[in-house]
Amino acid sequence: MNKSDRTAALLEVFAAEQRALDASGLPASLAVPGLRVPTVPLMHADGTQVASDELFASSPTVIVFYRGSWCPYCNMALRAYEKDLAPALRARGVQLIAISPQTPDGSTASRDDNELSFTVVSDPGNQLAAAFGILTAPSTEALAAQLSLGLDLREVNADGTVELPMPTVAVVDEAHILRWIDVQPNYAKRTEPGDILDAVVQITRTPGTADSTPGLTSITSRMSELAQTLGVKSCLVMRSDPGSMVVAATAGAGADFYRVGDAGQKAATGDAEVPLYCERVVDTGDAVFIRDSRDDEAFAGNADEVEFGLTNYFGLPVRNTEGQVVGTVCVLDDSAHDYDDRAKHELEMLRSGVEAIIAQDPSALSG
């Protein structure tokens, strides 16, 4: 067999293994959020031992299980996490730790070759990986192919076995409770940095914490005060897109389910028969007040009522400098009540603040 044929045969062995991994799917033993992570011995890159609970004690932790420094897919993922994830996690007080079953020398290679700023440790015997239910092993054919390429897992793994963790990212809180996990059975695939950060943001945010696009951060405190003053569940700034209404800023208890970037499909362009509250504001260009949607012929059974129990609504249109309606400001609640002149004035002031921002930065609603 010539070199070209040999290379093609080896590539087919690994491709066949990846197809089999895709077909097998997630392991039945996979841990689920709520698991209390057990304490197991780990090893730093310098060979010193450290208990896992010591590593996870100081702050929420993102754990990256990877196969080893010999794995090109692992190295690409670790470099991507260094560039696109680690800085954002540090800014939120969340640590990032990479864990593999290889020897400390392998951890050193992973750290130095990929220029990683975050902690890299070994999990001798895959004890932590086993607790997460993510252990696997290469196929017999793949092991033979690896050996032909000069890789012997029994030599690079700290425990002398060929077992490996499936590429996995998990988020563990300070109490050592698993809060989120994503597993890629096929080692050629990895969890995207953006998906990890989204999970961290949701897990670490204080319930009801206001949030917004970068351009609207200056008004979130006012929105929180308005939600509290009016005694409503939610205060929102919404952007109007051709087929949907999109959350641009959110405050009040409803911030737990109205998240920045969430979109509700407009009835005019979708299958829904009942329009969104804010959709009507945009369509008419006028204020809309719904005391109780359940008693309103046009809005009974709307999405906010059905999904979140918010039956009370008051919203105003937001216009750009050309007078076009580009969004709304609104408040929603789960009980029927009216809004007096003072409440209306407060919402109008919020609208004026938003319009002043987009007059200077038309992209503020979009981030």
Automatic annotation (TrEMBL):
Biological processes annotated in GO: cell redox homeostasis; cellular response to oxidative stress
Alphabetic keyword roster: Antioxidant, Disulfide bond, Oxidoreductase, Peroxidase, Redox-active center
PROSITE patterns named in the record: THIOREDOXIN_2
GO CC terms, sorted: cytoplasm
UniProt cross-references to Gene3D superfamilies, sorted A to Z: 3.30.450.40, Glutaredoxin (3.40.30.10)
Statement: the UniProt record of this protein carries the keyword Nucleotide-binding: no
Domain Thioredoxin: 31-186
Reactions it catalyzes: a hydroperoxide + [thioredoxin]-dithiol = an alcohol + [thioredoxin]-disulfide + H2O
EC code(s) of this entry: 1.11.1.24
A GO molecular-function descriptor: thioredoxin peroxidase activity
The protein's role, per its UniProt record: Thiol-specific peroxidase that catalyzes the reduction of hydrogen peroxide and organic hydroperoxides to water and alcohols, respectively. Plays a role in cell protection against oxidative stress by detoxifying peroxides and as sensor of hydrogen peroxide-mediated signaling events.
Recorded family membership: Belongs to the peroxiredoxin family. BCP/PrxQ subfamily.
Protein name, per record: thioredoxin-dependent peroxiredoxin
Native organism: Mycolicibacterium canariasense (Mycobacterium canariasense)
